[in-house]
Specification:
The protein is α+β, with helices and mostly antiparallel strands. 25% of the residues lie in helices and 27% in strands.
Length: 455
């Protein structure tokens, strides 16, 4: 057996434990330290020397405060405490270790010292029955475990399914930006959790505890929340810190805050970042979805929008403007619907026979470059629509009959490209109203509308 004991900062003990799990599955938190049993993992890392190099020189645990190793976990822990106190390892191991380094013997060390017993070996030389009767059987059990005569049993660390960490603030925070220092510490632990669980973040929640129950005679909630969302799964903490900072700058605390909590709301399996060996395929700067997320936080999601195509023949309903951070995931993965499996790919279309006639112009090519937000009704004189003068129709009617399912009612239109002496080419349509009997009315009741302009 080969045990390693690490002395870590108390507030980062959980995060350090998650990082240690990448080297061995046997990691336990004992008192103020982390214990790692690495005998079963040494071969996977290329031997003991290579494993220690990876842990303390190359890995995330490169700069622990103190570390020590031993044949048992209690010996490694005792050597760690001795090193932290500035002492030197004894010549005889583990008989020469002082009693203060054994947790179960700490409370009895003064009494044992008066009896002339100061080391593990001297305590082990005492009659077992008398030690058990005077100090209890747990002391003897711990001593047997330290000498390897009894198996060591610890509660091994495991990575939780959901990240949920609560942190006490060093001082009461009166404004939301004052929470950023503690938020960065939580985000650092969150990054370790994401990497250990191989998850990508989509949504997380910050929750702070208010220190007052009433303010100016008005009752206050016990907690307040702030949700941070991303358009695409990410593990980029630099981008997340920027989003959190932008959102905290616009948040307002109802009262001073004493605790801050961070928990994950939505995560997905992380496949890693897409990169290329070619320099030109890895442009520098901020990615599009990161820019959209940052602007959505700064300006509001309703002010940063993207167009999403819709299956509708009416030109004004062919696209829908939605918040960009909601549209981007659909654009990035169009074959995935609501997180389900990708759609089966359709077979490639069969090649068409070459036509000997004139090329056919697709109907979409006739759409104007500028579509009016609301169609503008045109005056009609002598059965001709006018827009800066009488309009001359240049194309045949393109008939549209749709939206019988919509609350707006059936749309019956005939679209034309027309020429205006003052405006140039315009896109107009003639509305064909429906009578009560279901047939269209006469031509004298037609109404004309301007719907688009050509550049």
């Amino acid at each position: 057996m080969h045990w390693i004991a690490l002395q870590c900062p108390a507030e980062d003990l959980a995060a350090w434990g998650w990082q240690a799990l990448q080297f061995t599955p046997r990691v336990a938190q004992v008192d103020e330290a982390l214990l790692m049993e690495v005998s079963g993992s040494e071969r996977l890392w290329g031997g003991r020397k290579r494993l220690l190099q990876r842990i303390f020189q190359e890995g995330p645990l490169a700069q622990p405060l103190h570390w020590a190793r031993g044949a048992t976990g209690l010996v490694a822990l005792a050597l760690l405490r001795l090193k932290a106190a500035g002492g030197k390892p004894p010549a005889q191991m583990p008989q020469g270790l002082p009693l203060e380094t054994l947790t179960c013997a700490t409370a009895h060390a003064p009494m044992l010292a008066r009896a002339g017993c100061t080391t593990w070996g001297e305590l082990r030389g005492l009659p077992r029955a008398g030690v058990a009767r005077r100090f209890g059987a747990p002391l003897l059990d711990a001593l047997d475990t330290a000498f390897g005569e009894r198996p060591e049993a610890y509660r091994w660390l495991s990575i939780p399914e959901v990240f949920d960490v609560r942190l006490e603030l060093p001082a009461l925070a009166t404004t939301a930006p004052e929470l950023m220092w503690s938020a960065q510490r939580l985000l650092g632990q969150f990054q370790v959790w994401l990497q250990a669980r191989q998850r990508g973040l989509l949504a997380m929640e910050f929750e702070w505890t208010l220190d007052l129950k009433r303010l100016d005679g008005k009752p206050l909630p016990s907690h307040e929340q702030m949700v941070v969302r991303t358009a695409q799964p990410t593990q980029d903490m630099q981008h997340l810190r920027r989003l959190v900072s932008e959102q905290l700058d616009r948040a307002r605390l109802s009262a001073p805050t004493s605790y801050l909590r961070l928990r994950s709301l939505e995560t997905v399996p992380w496949a890693g970042a897409d990169t290329s060996l070619l320099i030109e395929d890895n442009p520098k700067g901020e990615k599009l979805h990161q820019l959209v997320e940052r602007l959505s936080v700064r300006l509001g999601p309703e002010n940063v929008c993207m167009a999403l195509p819709r299956a509708d023949h009416r030109p004004e309903h062919m696209q829908q403007w939605l918040p960009a951070r909601e549209v981007l995931p659909r654009v990035a993965a169009p074959d995935v619907v609501d997180g389900l499996a990708p759609r089966p790919k359709e077979p490639p279309p069969k090649p068409r026979k070459k036509s000997t006639g004139a090329p056919r112009v697709p109907s979409d090519a006739l759409y104007p470059t500028w579509l009016l937000a609301e169609p503008q009704e045109l005056p009609v004189r002598h059965n001709k629509p006018h827009y800066g003068g009488p309009l001359q129709r240049l194309t045949r009617a393109r008939r549209l009959e749709a939206a019988w399912w919509d609350s707006e009612g059936l749309a019956l239109r005939d679209y034309y490209i027309a020429f205006s002496e003052s405006a140039g080419l315009v896109w107009i349509y003639r509305e064909r109203p429906v009578s009560l009997a279901g047939a269209t009315s006469g031509a004298q009741e037609y109404r004309w509308f301007l719907h688009g302009l050509y550049a």
